[in-house]
Amino acid sequence: MTSKPTMLALVLSGLLLGLAAAPGPKLDPETYFDRGLTHLREGRVDQALEAFKAAVKGDPKNAYFQKGLGQAHLAKREWSKAAEAFRQALEINPYYADVHNDLGTALLLGGKREEARQELLAAYNDPTFATPEVAAHNLGQSYLEEKNYGEAYTWFRTTVQRNKGYADGHLGLADTLAAQQRFDEAVLQLEVAKKELPDALPIAMALADACSKVGRQNEARTYFEELARKDPGGPYGRRALERLRDLPR
User: Fold this and answer.
1) How many other CB atoms sit within 10 Å of the CB of residue 81?
2) What is the CB neighbour count within 10 angstroms for residue 229?
3) DSSP code of 226?
4) Predicted confidence (pLDDT) at residue 11 exceeds the cutoff of 80
5) Alpha-carbon gap, residue 105 to 119, rounded angstroms
6) How many Å apart are CA 201 and CA 213, to the nearest integer?
7) Tell me, what DSSP letter sits at residue 247?
8) DSSP secondary structure string for all residues of 50-102
9) Residue 202, CB half-sphere, CA atoms under 13 Å: how many?
10) Cα gap 53→66, rounded to integer Å
11) Which of 209, 214, 213 lies closest to 227 in space, CA to CA?
12) Dist. CA 245–CA 240, nearest whole Å
C-alpha cells in the first residue's frame, strides 16, 4: 500500500507536470512586435524573426508587423522573404513610404535592380518619406553596380545635397570616382567629407586607404594613427594598426 506522504508526493508531482505542460499566457500581437523590435535592435535576429512571425500571425493586416518581419528577414539576408513581407505591408498600406525604400533595398540586394529602382524612386519622391537621402544613396548604389558611373555619381551627389551628415553619400561619391581610376579626385572628395564629418570613422578609414593608394604615405600614416587612437580595440582601430604595419617606411 502506498503511504500518505508518498501519495502526496505523487499528486504534487502530477500537478507540477501538468503546470509545466500547460501553455503560458498568450501574448497580444503588439507585445510580440515590441519584443521583435528589441531583439532586432540588440542583434538577436532569430528571436526577432520568431517574435515578428507571432505578431503577424496574431494580426496579419498590420502593416507595421509586416515591415518588422521584413526587416528581420533582411537581417538574415533572406532577400525574397523580406521582399514578400514588405509587399504585404504595402498591400495593407500603399502610402507607407518607408516600406517602398525597404522593398527597394531587398530587391537591390537580391539583384533585381530595375524593380528596386521603381520602389526607391517611389520612396524618394514621396514628401512624407523622412530620409530621402537613404533612397538616393540606394539608387546610386544600384547604378554603381551596373558601372553606370554618371547616374551613380548624380544620385550620390543628390544624397550629399540632401544630407551632408550622411557618411554613405560621401563614400558613394568616392567609390564612384575610384571605380573609374580617378583616385586623386576620390582623395579630394574624402578630404571634403572628413572636414564635414571629422568623427566619422568609415570616412577616415576610406581617406587613409585612398591616400596610401596614391602614394601619400605620410598622410595615410597620420590618418591610420588617428583611427587607432579614436577606436582602440574596435574594428577600425584594429584595421588601422594592421595597415600601419604594412605601410612602407
Assistant:
1) 17
2) 10
3) H
4) no
5) 9
6) 18
7) S
8) HHHHHHHHH-TT-HHHHHHHHHHHHHTT-HHHHHHHHHHHHHH-TT-HHHHHH
9) 10
10) 9
11) 209
12) 9
DSSP secondary structure, 181-196, as one string: T-HHHHHHHHHHHHHH
Answer for the pair 90, 99: CB distance below 8 angstroms, yes or no: yes
What's the CA gap between 231 and 202, in Å, rounded?
Answer: 11
Joined together, the cell numbers standing for residue 209 give 586607404
What's the predicted TM-score (pTM) here? Answer: 0.81
CA 72/CA 68 separation, integer angstroms: 6
The pLDDT-based confidence of 18 (bands split at 50, 70, 90) is very low
Give CA–CA dist 32/9, Å, rounded.
Answer: 38
pLDDT in tens, 144-162: 999 999 999 999 999 999 9
Q: Please give the single-letter amino acid code of residue 157.
A: R
Q: HSE of 109 in the Cβ direction (CA atoms, 13 Å)?
A: 17
Take residue 132 and report the three cell numbers written for it: 530621402
Question: Is 132 in contact with 155 (CB distance < 8 Å)?
Answer: no
Burial class of residue 115 in the structure, from the number of CB atoms within 10 Å of its CB (0-12 exposed, 13-18 middle, 19+ buried): middle
Rounded Cα–Cα distance for residues 195 and 145 (Å): 28
CA distances from 189 to 151, 159, 186, 226 (A): 17, 14, 5, 19
Find where cell 591616400 sits.
211
